[in-house]
Amino acid sequence: xxxxxxxxxxxxxxxxxxxxxxxxxxxxxxxxxxxxxxxxxxxxxxxxxxxxxxxxxxxxxxxxxxxxxxxxxxxxxxxxxxxxxxxxxxxxxxxxxxxxxxxxxxxxxxxxxxxxxxxxxxxxxxxxxxxxxxxxxxxxxxxxxxxxxxxxxxxxxxxxxxxxxxxxxxxxxxxxxxxxxxxxxxxxxxxxxxxxxxxxxxxxxxxxxxxxxxxxxxxxxxxxxxxxxxxxxxxxxxxxxxxxxxxxxxxxxxxxxxxxxxxxxxxxxxxxxxxxxxxxxxxxxxxxxxxx
Amino acid sequence: xxxxxxxxxxxxxxxxxxxxxxxxxxxxxxxxxxxxxxxxxxxxxxxxxxxxxxxxxxxxxxxxxxxxxxxxxxxxxxxxxxxxxxxxxxxxxxxxxxxxxxxxxxxxxxxxxxxxxxxxxxxxxxxxxxxxxxxxxxxxxxxxxxxxxxxxxxxxxxxxxxxxxxxxxxxxxxxxxxxxxxxxxxxxxxxxxxxxxxxxxxxxxxxxxxxxxxxxxxxxxxxxxxxxxxxxxxxxxxxxxxxxxxxxxxxxxxxxxxxxxxxx
Amino acid sequence: xxxxxxxxxxxxxxxxxxxxxxxxxxxxxxxxxxxxxxxxxxxxxxxxxxxxxxxxxxxxxxxxxxxxxxxxxxxxxxxxxxxxxxxxxxxxxxxxxxxxxxxxxxxxxxxxxxxxxxxxxxxxxxxxxxxxxxxxxxxxxxxxxxxxxxxxxxxxxxxxxxxxxxxxxxxxxxxxxxxxxxxxxxxxxxxxxxxxxxxxxxxxxxxxxxxxxxxxxxxxxxxxxxxxxxxxxxxxxxxxxxxxxxxxxxxxxxxxxxxxxxxxxxxxxxxxxxxxxxxxxxxxxxxxxxxxxxxxxxxxxxxxxxxxxxxxxxxxxxxxxxxxxxxxxxxxxxxxxxxxxxxxxxxxxxxxxxxxxxxxxxxxxxxxxxx
Lengths: 292, 264, 371
Known about the structure:
heterotrimer, B: mainly alpha, MetI-like fold, globular, C: Rossmann fold, CATH 2.40.50.100, six-stranded mixed β-sheet, 9 helices, 20 strands, 34% strand, elongated, disordered N terminus
């Protein structure tokens, strides 16, 4: 028994790699993840509870200061709003995409996937052009006579919500699309043959079966939105910070590392817990644009 | 004969195309703006000029930032595809309890907010002198791109029958020869497309770059961030247009690679 | 250069599998198997899925390391030798041709691994293709060939470097019935031409019976019986083999006395006297036993030289060469009879009671009880 196990460690048996080669092939991955991912984040968590001395007061500052509490609440609310908007906007697109064929399907797929692979900065910059006093939206509103003077759109929370929804929408559409595509066409046909109207078929067969995709997409959007930095930093108001912009400010302007570390700790622990709770539903491999 | 179109489908279609417009218009809008003669970014754009493009190409700072990002992205693509493919191969053909740990650690960089990793690396890299260096950027971006490489390669390797390698070995090939002569050629298109994706993720990566960039070593996204934050000049639409073209080229490349692997 | 003539002198290798055991956790996939295979022999490993037949083959190929026991090829211990240094030919279930290589490169691959120059390995690959009747197909790609052709390419690749042992893991199960029969003959012909030792894994008993010199019947990792086809069919050594190979009728009986004759009581009270040779396994008076008889050995009508049974027929199936009669004995036990060339018996109808003679020499007696 020991002899066989030892030989599996040292020798490949042809179909499976030996234990030793498995280890060697995984080593660079573990090394870089440990060194460049696990260690720096653990270090931050340690700072948040050990500096200036072993204490939880950094965390107490997050919760007790009403300004910081409002930042946390705003972040949660924004992420929730963005997730809800993404479901409302994304589900019909995913449904349409799963039904479309040929050129139409390709066109819709390009519209969904191209933004996913273009720079977040490009998309955020585009919104800052659109939201300017003399940008497209204000020009259009004034040309239509809906308003006589331009709205203040840039540097508002609405701008952040709209632009974040735009950036994160593909993360909602693709998992729902994946779930819808995995429903065999025959289910819909079977329901129709059994006498269901198209609406009933959708509500009682398609919708329940697509729910895992909706949950997966919602989590993905929600988790990403919680820690989103670029869009709030460029389009948001300095008076209405989100947790990520507050972290950035603490580090770059206030230089309060322990407090920034505590903010990162709150964010990371919350996000990780959510991910662990929903680990069964999250299907990250559906994100690789395998839609076409 | 066409079946009658019902109002439900029409409404769905209209809604979907409105959403698609919401997705695509902000992206497309920067293209005409990049050719506008206006010095300030007013709408509608007027005239036609290439001066914003030449401003970008003539600027030493923009060129330096772009060159830094290109170097980082190329090295990231190389590191991530080699490390990711080795680990994925070990995961699929391997024999180790580490495989479970691998799967958990793999989704870490996707779950944990980039701002958390960026701040952690900012602190860590400053103490060991990697901040603002090419190795520092490459290490950070490799971590961020590894999950994508692994997902792509796992899908590709899972399609290669394990018995093909066994057959090669029964023909006298060593394990490494079996991989190099049989498995590798079969997954090469996926390997290339995962390298392409790693390149574009690194090239466009804004958050970690934002914190790791020094005064002198600034990546293109970091310099764009500053420009958008401070003065928002029409150079930005020009660069944005170039980046969109790059994304299209990368997606086309990936598409060609995928169709090539299908015909196999 | 003709591969067949080149290999005629080189005969197969002998293989000795001793006390082979393979455990996966608590489960024994192979549980103390001994097989001695003579040089040039064609042996089939036959059993239901999970019987350990593939694990044995993979251990011989070097794709599994046994938990204990050893494998010798021509007295060389190869138990832990890596598969690429065993010099065995192997054909897998699903062709496993390298999809990115031409047919010729596929067949030449083992020669490339052995460092042969391009010109020579192509010539020898062409010759090997000719022996499987695929000369001229070398430039094609695997996906341009039919399943049967692909499996013949796999065969050519396995024999091109003149190995002394050929291992085949259910090589025909992916093919449809007609192709399968063609390939059975093809493999038999190659075996005869090359004199190579063949281990052939299958779950198809007719394949094993028609092709192999000897068949090892496996169940739960243990060898149930090993022997030539005729022995397996005519006198299975235990109840499992009796039920696994071919069709068999079973009747539970009680042993009355054992001596020069064996007396058994049938479920409906009748007592039969059987010759002592009928007892395949030793039986003892007072114990339960199972009487087995092949359906084709039953003779319609009451005759001499055997015992007579009465069967209430439930189904009469016309099966071409024979008529299949299905019915029940007085105690309800199902009984099948295959009567050859019996179309004149179409007068029989379901519900009829028919008499059959069971020849004494057709009866086999086993220990234990059925179900």
